[in-house]
Design brief:
Layout (H helix, E strand, L loop, with lengths): L6 E5 L5 E5 L5 H13 L7 H7 L4 H12 L3 H19 L4 H7 L5 H12 L3 H9 L1
Antiparallel strand pairs: 1-2
Helix pairs in contact: 2-3, 4-7, 5-6
């Protein structure tokens, strides 16, 4: 029989908290991967590259990452990109397509679609709501 699952929180750049459980990827390795993700949001980050940061096979890494964070590495990466985009959209008047490229999206349309799916509004609507 397993013991109780310890629940901790991990602060995201936009102030949200991601759920973390006690099992899965060790905390030090998780933090190393998150730091790597945050430092490389502007470019593609394949699973093989993320897993190499912590010296694991992609399959084993993905399984332990999801066990620890309750989301897949890809979903976590997308959420970090959107969190960073939310910060940029409220910080200055950069065009949406420039924000999209800065956080690693290849096109403004893909960024807008993903942003709307995650946040519930388009980047422009989000910016307008925050500037009022």
């Amino acid at each position: 029989m397993e013991g109780p699952t310890q629940d901790t929180r991990l602060e995201s750049p936009a102030g949200e908290q991601a759920r973390m459980t006690a099992g899965g990827l060790p905390r030090a390795r998780l933090l190393r991967v998150i730091q790597y993700i945050d430092g490389n949001l502007h470019r593609a980050l394949p699973l093989a590259e993320l897993s190499s940061v912590v010296h694991m096979s992609p399959f084993h890494f993905a399984r332990l990452f999801k066990e620890r964070t309750t989301v897949s590495p890809h979903r976590f990466l997308i959420r970090r990109r959107i969190d960073h985009a939310m910060t940029l959209l409220t910080a200055d008047g950069r065009p949406v397509d420039e924000v999209a490229r800065t956080v690693g999206f290849r096109s403004a349309s893909h960024f807008t679609t993903t942003f709307r799916r995650v946040v519930g509004v388009t980047p422009s609507e989000y910016r307008r709501a925050r500037s009022v």
